[in-house]
Amino acid sequence: MKISFPHMGNVYIALKAVFEDLGVTVIPPPKSSKRTLELGTRHSPEQICIPFKVTLGNYMESIDQGADTLFMWGGCDACRISYYHMLQEEILKELGYDIEMICGEPFKSFGEIINFLQKLKRVAGDNHYGKIGASFVKAVKILNEMDDLDEMFCQVRARETESGETDRLYRAFEEGIKQIHGSSKTLQWVQEIKNKLESISVDPHRRVIKVGIVGEIYTVVEPFINLNIIQKLGNMGVEVHRSVVASEFIREQLDFLPFVHSEKEEVHRAAAPYIDLEIGGHARHTVGNAVRYHEENYDGVIHLLPFTCMPEIVAQSILRSVEEEKDIPILKLVLDEMTGETGYQTRLEAFIELLWRRREKTHEEVLSWN
Questions:
Q1: How many Å apart are CA 224 and CA 12, to the nearest integer?
Q2: How far apart are CA 154 and CA 160, in angstroms?
Q3: pLDDT at residue 112 tops 70
Q4: pLDDT higher than threshold 90 for residue 110
Q5: Is the pLDDT of residue 367 over 60?
Q6: Cross-strand pairs, 71
Q7: Which of 180, 303, 340, 349 would you call most buried, defined as having the most Cβ atoms within 10 angstroms of its Cβ?
Q8: Which long-range contacts (CB under 8 A, 24 or more apart) does 278-281 make?
Q9: For the residues of 252-301, what is the DSSP string, one character each?
Q10: CA-wise closest residue to 246 among 73, 19, 82, 70
Q11: Are 115 and 318 in contact (CB under 8 A)?
């Protein structure tokens, strides 16, 4: 059995480590690219969202490299990702691929956790359930560490004194991951990179713009889809914070357990004046986190969403009221296979220039008041 899975930010690092711990041969897909998107788009339904197209392309490239078993994460509430695996499996088999698809559904009870472990048992072979459960716990720990590391990169990149040093370290990190086997060595490598990141020279007094990213989770965390928006903004002197990441997504699935805490209640409370029910995907989170960014004095918010994503389209219409009532600029970026990088970059630069001018105006008003 040779297993693979689609890219979604750094989730592949945790999946690679946990399956290696279980003795499974892992074939991570190549980094998502224009070819990946072209492959997926060619065989996808016309009106399906871009995450479906890219993940299908990931699968096809993995199968070409020898994968015969595919793992897919589950969706959240009323979102099309909930049936990705069924439709993608049908498409792949119609194309003549002999594969098995395994899907991990969202956790909302002990029974669903047990069901997930049983699915992993199909992959893990002779490994007992205790080892499978321990490997899953390690994967969650890696996700937490990876998201902490990414946040550190965002803080340092905006303040580094030598331009490009942070990006060079990140590339070294990715290259190192390819050579590492298992969760223990993965966690050691993450800690080593954290230590190196802390040694990068920064200007602690540099004035930076703070921008929060909200939207559908795949477009927020997958750099190929969002055209490396985190890196682009960081190199423009912007400290970026992502409101939805994989570790928080898992915590929200497990927060029915007494020892797990997520920020779901806080997010829902912030969103309540505008939307007080689940409508699918991350729409409620998009609104709630935009409000929270205002409360935390962020300079602006960027809303990322895939073309045709109905929950985020609804959220976007609500964000107009948030923008007006909270007086916080919100930039909407709709992403699909037709998104052009030049126009995308121009819009980002114009938005950041707007935020700097607002910052300067506010500073001038404070001085005049004094």
A1: 14
A2: 10
A3: yes
A4: no
A5: no
A6: 102
A7: 303
A8: 278/77, 278/78, 279/78, 279/311, 279/314, 280/76, 280/77, 280/78, 280/79, 280/310, 280/311, 281/76, 281/77, 281/78, 281/79, 281/81, 281/216, 281/309, 281/310, 281/311, 281/312
A9: HHHTTSTT---SHHHHHHHHTTT--S--STTHHHHHHHHHHHHHTT-SEE
A10: 73
A11: no
Q: What is the dihedral of CA 166, 167, 172, 176, to 10 degrees?
A: 100
Helix, coil or strand: residue 241: strand
DSSP symbol at 223 = T
pLDDT at 261 over 80: yes
Q: How many CA atoms lie within 13 A of 137 on its CB side?
A: 7
pLDDT in tens, 208-230: 999 999 999 999 999 999 999 99
CB-count exposure of residue 364 (10 Å: 0-12, 13-18, 19+): exposed
Measured distance CA(216)–CA(310) in Å, rounded: 11
Distance, CA of 143 to CA of 307 (rounded, Å)? 27
Who contacts 43 (Cβ-Cβ below 8 Å, separation ≥6)?
Answer: 56, 60, 91, 95
Q: How confident is the model at residue 144 (pLDDT cuts 50, 70, 90)?
A: very high
CA 74 to each of CA 48, 79, 82, 358: distance values in angstroms, whole numbers, following the listed order: 17, 10, 6, 41
Whole-Å CA distances, 216 to 251, 320, 361: 17, 17, 32
Q: Give the E-state strand segments of the chain in sequence order.
A: 2-4, 25-26, 69-73, 100-104, 209-215, 238-242, 300-306, 330-335
From the number of C-beta atoms within 10 Å of its C-beta (0-12, 13-18, 19+), residue 137 rates as: exposed
What does the block give as tokens for 137?
């716990």
pLDDT of 368 strictly over 80: no
309 token code pair: 């994503």
| Residue 80 β-bridge partners | none
Q: What is the dihedral of CA 344, 346, 347, 351, to 10 degrees?
A: 140
Confidence check: pLDDT of 370 > 60? no
